[in-house]
Specification:
Blueprint (H helix, E strand, L loop, with lengths): L16 E8 L5 E2 L9 E7 L22 H4 L1 E4 H9 L5 E5 L7 H13 L3 E6 L14 E5 L10 H4 L2 H10 L2 E7 L2 H14 L4 E5 L4 H17 L3 E2 L3 H6 L6
Parallel strand pairs: 3-5, 5-6, 6-7, 7-8, 8-9, 9-10
Antiparallel strand pairs: 1-3, 1-4, 2-3
């Protein structure tokens, strides 16, 4: 899994275009809702397609074609248009998310170059199964790596890729953000952290409602604090009720 397989038909096209699910934050301002930059004003470029099929995924419109129509849920947009869109906003932080954005990472190199030239800093949200292209490991780029546990509804033989985790850990440009819903999840996170030497570690309570996030926060808080890990909420869910485009 360290080298992503092709997405039939969709990624075979040439030219600097990306398969996009949505972009937002310029016309209606928002902020990064999770992880180290939680609360920072942000623009979002959400790429379509994923190499995992997590049962608890909250962006299934990027990959689950049994429920969604890819012709309605994605478009191909040029790198030039995306850079111009981001450059039109004074917001400094651009979050490139998915789906799994690194499936399209060769085309993301030119996007990163254009965004950096426009004075933006960049965060990638990735599931940590694909080794990052060295050309993405540049100044002003960070990776929020979120390995998915079995409790998230995925086989860990697919979602935990040691070579990719080692590459992110050694880059010095990654934080590791785990979604947890139980103290048992924290025990599994500790195993992965020790085995793959992951740091810094952020834990985010699972939930798609304010009530669910609050309950999971209270359940996990003491155990996260005892391990001296960082704790993140899901601010966009609390603020915007998990609405798309916010």
């Amino acid at each position: 899994m360290t080298t992503p397989g092709p997405v039939p038909g969709e990624l075979a096209t040439s030219g600097a275009r990306l398969i996009i699910a949505e972009r937002f934050g310029a016309e209606t301002p928002t902020f990064q809702g999770e992880g180290p930059s939680c609360g920072h004003p942000a623009l979002f470029i959400r790429l379509s397609r994923c190499n995992l099929t997590c049962a608890r995924c909250d962006t299934k419109y990027t990959w689950d074609w049994s429920q969604f129509d890819p012709r309605k849920e994605s478009t191909k947009q040029s790198v030039a248009d995306l850079v111009a869109w981001a450059a039109s906003s004074p917001v400094e932080l651009v979050v490139i998310t998915g789906g799994e954005p690194l499936i399209q990472q060769r085309r993301l190199v030119s996007l990163v170059q254009g965004l950096r030239a426009a004075g933006k800093r960049i965060e990638f949200e990735t599931n940590g199964t694909i080794v990052p292209d060295p050309e993405l490991l540049t100044d002003g780029v960070r990776f929020n790596v979120s390995p998915k546990l079995r409790s998230f509804g995925v086989d860990e033989s697919q979602s935990i890729e040691p070579a990719a985790l080692r590459a992110f850990a050694s880059s010095g440009q990654a934080a590791f953000k785990f979604v947890a819903s139980s103290v048992t999840d924290l025990d599994r996170i500790a195993e992965l952290v020790d085995l793959h030497e992951l740091a810094p570690v952020w834990v985010m309570p699972e939930g798609t409602t304010a009530e669910g996030i609050a309950a999971a926060t209270r359940l996990l808080a003491d155990a996260v604090a005892a391990r001296h890990w960082h704790f993140s909420t899901r601010l966009h869910v609390l603020a915007f009720a998990n609405a798309r485009g916010r």
